[in-house]
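Q: Could you write out the predicted structure for this multi-component system? I'm mainly interested in how the pieces pack against one another.
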Amino acid sequence: MTQTLATLLIAHIVLGLIGIGALFALAMALLKKMPSMRFLRISSLIAVIGFILSWISGGYYYVTYYGGPVKAAIKAGPNPWAHAFFMEAKEHVFLLLPFISLALACAFFFGGERIVSDDKKRHALLAITLIAGLIGVFSTLSGVIISGSVR
Amino acid sequence: MDWHTILIALHLIGTVLGVGGATFAEIFLLKSLRDGEIDPLESSFLKVTYRVIRIGLALLVLSGFGFLILYRLTGLEERLLSPLLWAKLAIVGIILANAILLQARKIPLWLGSALSLASWYGAMLIIPLRSVFKSINAGFFDVILIYAAFVIITATILFGIRRALGIRH
Amino acid sequence: MEPIQNIIRESNYKTGEKISRVPHAAFCALIVASLVIAGLTISADLIPPLKNWLKGTFSHHWIGKGVLALAVFLISFLISLSFSPTERRERIALYSSAWIVALSTFAIVGFFLYEAFFLH
């Protein structure tokens, strides 16, 4: 693995974790009756930027490097299901994250207090945030399994 | 200074903030509930403590994954599938889920605080006790069972303390 | 018959206070993009010519899915912007997007779970 690819892999993981952390912060804030709009906006913006950059860095690594030596090593190793299930599922569900975080950011920036003060809408936003968080956690843990299966 | 040393330092700082924060959150909570209500000053102490816990958690998660990245890049991939690592990841997941459930008031306070305290100490002690776990050939589910027992013990001790202090639920 | 208070509230928002179209448009676009991502993912695996087309057009099937998802999101967003949403429609868009995203996720994960562990 070249230094560039290693840097991209690190960036993908760290930025993804920052995105997930931002979603966690969003969820905690949305659970309050009167969350701070400033906090919601900043957290959602961090989530969008984190996931888009994680998408780009991980995508480059995946398209240029993973498909060759890494995938072959996993498929030939003791855990071929690490690619067949975890990588396949992760690479596709991850596609949802940038769009979810973008929609959430639009709600907080353009809907503002009007949306957040409505209990039903706030609960729907919370549900979407938690779903996105679970997708993020699944992607992260899948990544650990995939990397652990490279022998 | 190499990356391993930096990550150990960050991980230790995160652990200290998290475990220390969780301990004092429980102490402040018990003290606050003695008179049956949490006044604004007590609430402000608790809020600051929770913020410290969250900073500790962020440092812990980032440095923890830093270790995983290091293993991946230095040919130690087999460590990523270690049962002890996955038990620790599960416990950290419980800390996060517990925080959300407590905030949403979907979990009773006595259980949430016991889970929080036991999880922080559990996550901290897993690695130092790895030689013990290895000597008894403990797998993932064995460690989780021991952790569950630890949660029950913690809840029981906290229940006893609350009763002694006259705190009612 | 919906309670009269709800109808009045929506009318007030329709004739009086304007609500931003952006949140409603964003969540409508999210719904469409989620369905496209799930649909493309599953069908590309089941229909090899589709996967080959994605690979041939975009150099990699995964890039193709991402690009198409982005295009669909943007187009749906722009189309949805032309609608004047009410509070009720916005609420429906929010709830629907939560369900659709969850179902899309389960569909993708369930599909690969089946393919990896049960098909062969």
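A: Regarding packing and overall arrangement: Chain B has six helices and no strands.
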